[in-house]
Amino acid sequence: MITTSKSAKIIPHIVLIILTLVCLLPLLLLLMASLTDEQTLMLNGYSFFPEKFSADAYTYIFKTGKTVLRAYGITFFVTAVGTVCNVCMTVCLSYPLARPGLKGRNAIAFFVFFTMLFNGGLVPTYIMYSQFFHIRDTIFALLIPSFLMSPFNVILMRNYFKTNIPDAIIEAAKLDGASELRTLVNVVLPMSTPIIGTIGLMSGLAYWNDWTNGLYYLVKRTDLYSIQNVLTNMLNNIQFLKTATQLQGINIEMGTLPSVSIRMAIAVVAVIPVMIVYPFIQKSFVKGIVIGGVKG
Amino acid sequence: MSNSTSQNRQGKIKKKGSFTRNLPLYLLMIPGLLYLIINNYLPMFGLTFAFKKINYTVGVFESPWVGLDNFTYLFKTSDAFVIFRNTLCYNLAFIVLGTVLAIVVAIFLEQVRTKMLRVYQTSILIPYLLSITVVSYLAFAFLSSDNGFINNSILKLLGMDEISWYSSPKYWPFILTFIYLWKSFGYSSILYFATLIGIDDSYYEAAVIDGASTWQQIRHITLPCLKTTIITLVIMHIGRMFYSDFGLFYQVPMNNGLLFSVTNTIDTYVYRGLLQLNDVGRSSAAGFLQSILGFVLVMITNMITRKIDKESALF
């Protein structure tokens, strides 16, 4: 630890408390806005100390907000299925790559690594998925592109297996007659819970927060929108109507759009699962960042 | 169980070829490799679309080759300059400011040896967990001209006029840089912090005995120990200089045309051309340049790093 004079010891605390507030206050504003009475909101704007509270926005969402609840369900489904598939595929690809003496494993490892250096970008990816695989307007659009497996995680997990699972243990299991699959499931995986947890967390967060796949591939089937897509769509519609009214003087009934507090309430609803899970996984999450940050 | 055991042993004794013996391992890899082929390798070959005039009705493969037409078409407009300038300049600002901020925060975190450390770590990571969609709502809550917190509370309190944020490009370079730093500094501080706690306390103790000031300790112990981490993280970011966070530049300014001069990056340009303006030609040309230049940049930075400090190179 850097040694400082006694009076200077307080400086880190002051700076970090300010940064903590900067990180948390915007979320508090969002929460307060969602709990503010609509009239008060229109009159005073968003505020940390609303004059009049109201939970109307939330009752509205749960009573009539079919779109929101369905989108919520879809997001949960995609996150769960996607994360499980992601972890399975990552394990299955990285475990053989960590086994010494497997012919061609360096070539295959390079095949995986190369995708991190070079990629085709959005245009070819979009054309291929929509023209050849026809995943547009299906649930696969939310599951498959980009997030199903990350080459970075494969390298990460391979390194973990290499350094943390001694070959002797695998050989012993094989001598006892366990098949490759059995060795993997009963011996290697129980020893690898930290890395599996980390990759599962990162993948789950990526699926939960993703809105790009829905934006690219869901054109007509807006009923498949994830909660993030519902949110972006709502914000963009408002913006579109505003510019239209400003530019052309058209008067569009703003009442047809969800009111201000309801929009903020939906954003809160989208954040809540992450905030509920986060305190429990905070430690392994920080560990995961550190593991992932050092080069593979 | 005992049956399969004896079979397996026999298999060993027979000394089958290594490929047959390892067949289950090869089979395990198939789903992952197949996904990489579909998701990563096929699009690489699709980069050749940049030399075609894509026409969906006749099909992508039957579309005619047009040579460099898409590229000349792209560079005829001022867009090309704007998107490359924006992408590179924002990244440069993000690298410099992001690194400095993260190191400063990490040094402060390292000096906290109380239970508060956990509280600080937990809270500064929260912005990193939020989707860019939610971040755009937070930005809207602050910046919206009718109800926004800044216009309604802060500026009113200071007796200043309202600012129409979403139609004034001059503020956006600062807004976007602020949001980027806000969202990412927790993550990178934790990375630097992890290196810092590995530094042996005896270095500092020895330095203090020799009469080193706080600044001298940072300058001569902390920063040299962070060197490898700094170089690794910075070259990883430099390798992505031609890429930008699509959500930050598209969703946070709410795809607002008035702000394009300072918010249009290669990624938003490619997206708009492909899916909103039906201008696949220019879009694929820009995407092609992004992929190729990105690759070249990664190779060059890695080569230079290897020359300077082999330990820090990525490969």
Description:
Chain B: Pfam families: BPD_transp_1 (PF00528). Chain B: It is a multi-pass membrane protein. Chain B: Residues 84-301 form the ABC transmembrane type-1 domain. Chain B: The chain crosses the membrane at residues 23-42, 92-112, 124-143, 225-243, 285-305. Chain B: Keywords: Cell membrane, Membrane, Transmembrane, Transmembrane helix, Transport. Chain A contains 14 helices and no strands. The longest helix of chain A has 34 residues, at 260-293. In chain A, helix 4 (66-98) runs antiparallel to helix 11 and helix 4 (66-98) packs across helix 13 (227-248). Chain A has a domain at 69-259: MetI-like (MetI-like fold, Orthogonal Bundle). Helix content of chain A is 72%, strand content 0%. Chain A starts with 9 loop residues before the first helix and ends with a helix. By secondary structure, chain A is an all-alpha fold. Chain B is mainly α and 315 residues long. Chain B folds into two domains: 17-50, no CATH class; 69-312, MetI-like fold. Chain B contains 15 helices and no strands. Chain B has helices at residues 2-14, 18-21, 23-45, 69-76, 79-111, 116-129, 132-143, 149-157, 172-196, 201-209, 214-238, 246-250, 260-263, 266-276, 280-308. The radius of gyration of chain B is 26 Å and the shape is globular. The interface between A and B is large, with 105 and 120 residues.
Helices and strands, with pairings:
The complex is a heterodimer of chains A (296) and B (315).
Chain A: H1 10-34, H2 38-44, H3 56-64, H4 66-98, H5 105-117, H6 122-132, H7 140-143, H8 151-164, H9 167-175, H10 180-188, H11 193-209, H12 212-217, H13 227-248, H14 260-293
Chain B: H1 2-14, H2 18-21, H3 23-45, H4 69-76, H5 79-111, H6 116-129, H7 132-143, H8 149-157, H9 172-196, H10 201-209, H11 214-238, H12 246-250, H13 260-263, H14 266-276, H15 280-308
Helix pairs in contact in B: 4-15, 5-9, 5-11, 6-9, 9-11, 11-15, 14-15
